[in-house]
Design goal:
This protein is mostly helical and about 500 residues long. The protein folds into three domains: about 230 residues, Hypothetical protein af1432, CATH 1.10.3210; about 180 residues, Hypothetical protein af1432; about 60 residues, Orthogonal Bundle (Arc Repressor Mutant, subunit A), CATH 1.10.10.10. Helix 7 runs antiparallel to helix 8 and helix 13 runs parallel beside helix 15.
Length: about 500
Amino acid sequence: MVVERIRLVDVLAALSLTTDLASGFPFERGLRACLIADVLARALELGPADHRAAFLASLLRGIGCGHASENAALFGDDIAFERFLVTFDPSDEAVAGAQLAAFEAVVGAAAMRRFVEVAPSVGPGAVRASCEVAVALGAQLGLPASVLEGFDDAFERWDGRGLPRGRAGEQVHHIARILAVADQAAIAHAIGGVAAARAEIARRSGGQLDPFLCDAFLANADEVLAPIEAAQDLVEAVHSAEPPPVVSISPAGLERTCLALATFADLKGTHLIGHSPHVTELAVGAASLAGLDGVEELRLAALLHDVGRAGVLSSIWDRAGPLGAADRERVRLHPHWTERVLSASPALTPLAALAAAHHERLDGSGYHRAARASDLPRGARLLAAADVLAAMTEDRPYRPAVPLEHAAGLIQDEAVAGRLDPEMVAAVIAAAGGQRPRTAWPNDLTDREVEVLRLAARGLSNKEIAASLIVSPRTVQNHLAAVYDKIGRRTRAGAAVFAVEHGLT
């Protein structure tokens, strides 16, 4: 796979589609917002740096969905909550009442009561975590500082009723204000076309949205929305609209970008943090042992294999008990979403079939295509084996991690049964046995602080971490405070991203 001339925006488009899955909005919502922000920036005659910042920030508006498991624990449906959070407008009582009723219809009366009870105390922390994740992943992607500042104010409002700081008016970062107009216009346009977008921006003017920017949108609405109305392919439209300077990425840059995509997907479950890099490490190590060609393509496909997880409720990934038939079908769809997201990006299309084959089995019993041995190249067979062994040796809500020796026997049983390739199983087991412990930690973290960070990244409470490490909750609190100071993060979601960035999971 040649990556020298891949444009960053092509890969960011795939990340945008992934965030659409996680937030429950119409597919391509981020692409729509990006095109709106682009034309609006031209109408406002923004300088080149601000123009590009508005373009990128609107494309990746949903990148901060890093509080999914916590939201699922509170409300059951984290995707419905994310959709509600982005569109809720407390400044209009009639609209707010209808939005609350619609949210209750999805999550139920008990979850609605819980929302009313905990929103004042939990809300700022949840939004702060989302902002911190967005900033951390944005920095990993190499986005400009103004984009990161826009992400940090993404839930603030013109009228001061936003979160987490309650900033108002021009205190809200100017990129965040443009992002908010573009995002609400994109959502309304996807649902009801130009008329709906006009009406929604006019209604929110002076409340959530900067009235000056709303006036600029309304004065130029037909022109602003024209690229969306005319586009046959929104990814291609975004590709064509990218303001200068056009950025191409190197092989190393592409890997970092794919890692950000993987991290976003793994944040969907408390026990999934670090899974995609783990699979990648096993797959690349096994590929060398098995003499496979195309190792770099395999590396990227392994990082991206689970991006489709974003479309499945966190409450399903975090469930300690068995899944019902409907939820099993939702899980079986996640490779389909992986393939669909990657296929939409010209830069990642060559990886789509390989990445989406990680749950296929040689006897046709896998999913989502029920492919058989003759349809599965060696790379797909190796990725499937790496995914199985990685999952077995990681904690899950319904069981602790299986020791490697036991997991090796179980995965060999899968090969004997004709579901996994024996050669690839042997290579993956050998790669797992060859891994060596790390002896030095980043940011001067101690061994104990890394232990605490790992457990915190998986969503354990201070009390649960204390029980696991046989220390007091106050000791855990002190360790976490030291960790946060050393790594420069202030929420568990942000700390989880740091752990993935530095291979600590």
